[in-house]
Amino acid sequence: MRNFDLAPLYRATVGFDQLADMMDRVLSTDGTAPTYPPYNIEKLDQDSYRITVAVAGFTDEELAIEVKDHALIVSAKKAEEDKRTYLHRGIATRAFERRFQLADHVKVTGATHADGMLHIDLVREVPEALKPRRIAITNAKGETVEAKALETTETVQ
User: In the chain, what are the domain boundaries?
Assistant: First the structure.
């Protein structure tokens, strides 16, 4: 069985349509995902990433980067060129569109194009309200437990 039926997931959940759609897209590729242009995805540190796309033969004006519905879309279309006769054409400059699904709170911070490589920098910015936070515990005397623990460790040293 190569295809999974996600209909029960749609029936049993509310508000998870995006997750189910993403799983459906991943499962439906069957290994026939496009391989042009080649790309790398790097994790630079805890919350920064870089996508590098090989775009040899394209100028800055022929490249486009767009973020839409949690998807990063990199596309290129070669401008019309005069008719040439090639004896061998090994450099592919065909039009392409490459999509990358972005997680929540991941934002594109910039892009550079140099030496035939397009570098797209991303950063994950989790809002303060969603970050884990420690809650202080107060005892019956109204003292916070963390403060009391800190005082005892300071006196022991």
Answer: 1-33, 35-125
Q: Note the pLDDT tens digit of each residue in 1-51.
A: 456 666 666 666 666 666 666 666 666 655 566 788 899 999 999 889 999
Alpha carbons 108 and 51: distance in angstroms, whole number:
10
The CA distance from 108 to 60, in Å, is 18
As a whole number of Å, the CA-based R_g of the chain is 25
| Predicted pLDDT at 137 | 84
Give 62's DSSP letter.
G
The highest-level CATH class for domain 35-125 is mainly beta
- Is there a contact between 100 and 34 (Cβ–Cβ < 8 Å)? no
Instruction: Name the residue type at position 155.
Output: T
Of 51, 47, 25, the closest CA to residue 38 belongs to 51
